[in-house]
Write a structure and sequence with these properties.
36% of the residues lie in helices and 15% in strands. By secondary structure, the chain is an alpha/beta fold. It has two domains: 170 residues, Aspartate Aminotransferase, domain 1 (Alpha-Beta Complex), CATH 3.90.1150.10; 248 residues, Type I PLP-dependent aspartate aminotransferase-like (Major domain) (Aspartate Aminotransferase, domain 2), CATH 3.40.640. The site of pyridoxal-5'-phosphate has 14 residues, from α4.
């Protein structure tokens, strides 16, 4: 497979795009970054004429694949009515009702445009509701690119155990109220609550650590987050930007039978369109209603994105959708594990069927960020490069997204490619 035209376009892009790409992490997907002409279902078509079977799903949103006819139709119909409004329309009520019906314990929602924004809205509401300033996040968790949360996202081994900025341009004053703890460690959470008595507004967590190895929560840990927040008058926030509408229609609330105070949604919710939401009980939004704080945004509730979300949730509500997606992912995980065993290589996969990660060099599923530092990331990169030559597009760091768009033919192709790549892989 050759990527000459992509290399040429990337060279042109670096002349005019300061970052070369439009989101920093994209540079790591392939060398050169690939340029695409079109995409359909689970297939991306690049400028060199290659057809690539996609398991990146646009970093999560494309749960129904590209150009799904039902989403396309809903969006085009809406575009015939509006472009953007900056005002009210019935679609907002319809989508809020749909989310409330799908997600257990959510009674009201607010809309934003990206996951990063919605996380900030949730933290602001939590701070206004509690009158407190500090919040707790966990090592390895990603909650968007803003300074107060881009802390200890992928710390080096030396940075473990303290709040470390992730990049330049993050003044310490902007994350001085961010407390960072190891995940799946209930005792550390209890200690933090007693050391900062009456000061913690919120605890924010990915319910599955999708951004660092798809680590699963230890039994009782998420329950402890919710219970300790309740005991100490803080707000529990599940950041479901990845897990929402992906691991189940009701996200982690449904999957784990849990009811945090607030949850944040984006990505899979709108099948590739730019919308996010925060959901919670009526009471948790009192601070917005009574004017203690505000939430705003020119594009909030944009009708086109709302139409895309309504169409996506309709597709995801078809009975059997999640069972089928999870089965597909589990079958890939089993193939990867089987091939590794046959070759005598240590490999584990972690997560669910619809979002999972692959770790070479680990004997047991990782429980927290520090564990994935021990994995053989270079070997996975070699494997991923072989998979690309086989026509499969995968994300770095071992993460795979599976969606409605992946069917039996894709599973067959993927299994065959996995087998061939293990044959070629030099450990
Ligand atoms: C868990 C989580 N929260 C927040 C975000 C930020 O969302 P966005 O990129 O839409 O701003 C992401 C993005 O990947 C995410 O994975």
């Amino acid at each position: 497979m050759n990527f000459e035209n992509s290399a040429r376009l990337y060279a042109q892009a670096t002349e005019v795009l300061a970052n070369g790409v439009s989101s920093g992490l994209r540079r790591r997907v392939s060398t050169p970054p690939l340029y695409f002409k079109r995409a359909s279902g689970p297939y991306f078509y690049d400028v060199d004429g290659n057809e690539l079977l996609d398991y990146t799903l646009g970093w999560g949103p494309l749960i129904a694949g590209n150009a799904h006819p039902a989403i396309h139709k809903a969006v085009v119909a809406e575009l015939q009515k509006f472009t953007s409004l900056g005002a009210q329309h019935e679609g907002e009520i319809a989508l809020a009702r749909r989310i409330i019906a799908a997600v257990p314990g959510v009674e009201q929602v607010i809309f934003s445009n990206s996951g990063s924004e919605a996380v900030q809205a949730a933290l602001r509401v939590a701070r206004a509701a509690t009158g407190r300033g500090k919040f707790i996040k966990f090592e390895g968790h990603y909650h968007g690119w803003f300074n107060n949360v881009l802390v200890s996202y992928h710390p080096t081994p030396e940075q473990l155990g303290r709040a470390a900025p992730t990049c330049g341009g993050q003044p310490a004053a902007e994350y001085q109220d961010t407390l960072v703890l190891p995940w799946n460690d209930k005792a550390a959470l209890e200690r933090a609550f007693s050391e900062h008595k009456g000061q913690i507004a919120a605890v924010i967590t990915e319910p599955i650590l999708a951004n660092s190895g798809s680590c699963m929560p230890e039994p009782g840990f998420l329950e402890a987050v919710i219970a300790l927040c309740k005991t100490h008058g803080a707000i529990s926030i599940f950041d479901e930007v990845i897990t929402g509408f992906r691991i189940a229609l009701g996200g982690a609330r449904e999957y784990f039978h849990l009811r945090p105070d607030m949850s944040v949604y984006a990505k899979a919710m709108a099948g590739g369109f730019s919308i996010s939401a925060v959901g919670g009980s009526r009471a948790v939004f009192d601070a917005l209603r009574d004017g203690r704080t505000i939430h705003a945004g020119t594009y909030n509730g944009n009708p086109v994105n709302i139409a895309a979300a309504l169409a996506t949730l309709e597709l995801l509500s078809v009975p059997g959708s999640y069972e089928r997606m999870h089965r597909h992912g589990q079958a890939i995980r089993e193939e990867l594990e089987r091939c590794a065993r046959a070759k005598g290589l240590a490999l584990v996969t972690s997560g669910t069927g619809t979002i999972f990660s692959v770790h070479f060099g680990l004997a047991a599923a990782p429980k927290r960020y520090a564990d994935i530092l021990k994995a053989d990331a270079a070997l996975y990169d070699n494997f991923r490069a072989l998979m690309l030559q086989e026509g499969l597009l995968l994300l770095p760091e071992g993460r795979w997204y599976v969606g409605l768009t992946h069917g039996e033919p894709e599973l067959g192709k993927t299994r065959d490619a996995v087998r061939r790549c293990f044959d070629k892989l030099k450990a």
